[in-house]
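Comment thread on ticket #2218

A.B. wrote:
> Attaching the input chain for the structure job we discussed in standup.
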Amino acid sequence: MHPHPNMFQRGLLNFFMQKPVTAMLISIQYRVDGFFWKISGGRLFFSSKLVGIPAFRITSIGAKSKQPRTLVLYGFSEDEKIALICSNFGRAHNPSWYYNLKANPKCQVEWKGKSREYIARESQGEERERYWNMAVSYYKGYELYAIRAAHRQIPVMVLEPAK
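C.D. wrote:
> Ran it. Output below, let me know if you need it in another format.
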């Protein structure tokens, strides 16, 4: 498991969870992370270092387009599993990558300079609650996102290494 964010990082996270700031981050975060990922040789995600939450570069196949889709997502690792919170910053609908992983569970995950194939599935019940609580322990903003998206339960996707 990854260490929790320090006091400075928690302060930034509290700032970032504010609705106007979140709206701005949605459009620029992936560009900044993509740039730092390229110049670091796949070892660094700027936003992850800044706020202290692990980030993963995930390539999945589009549910409709059937084309590869790559993006950086925050996640929480436990043993070899990775949990991804499908909060979509508290928006009304699930993120598109959630639907991509549901339709095509096989994905490629790059983390700490290594690439590995994973299989995604949606967690349920106690497992979902455990991962949800783990995520909230890192970032209280998930609770705020759940309030913003109160009409839906925010899914938690679990990625497990392909055998």
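A.B. wrote:
> Thanks. Noting for the ticket: The first helix runs from residue 7 to 16.
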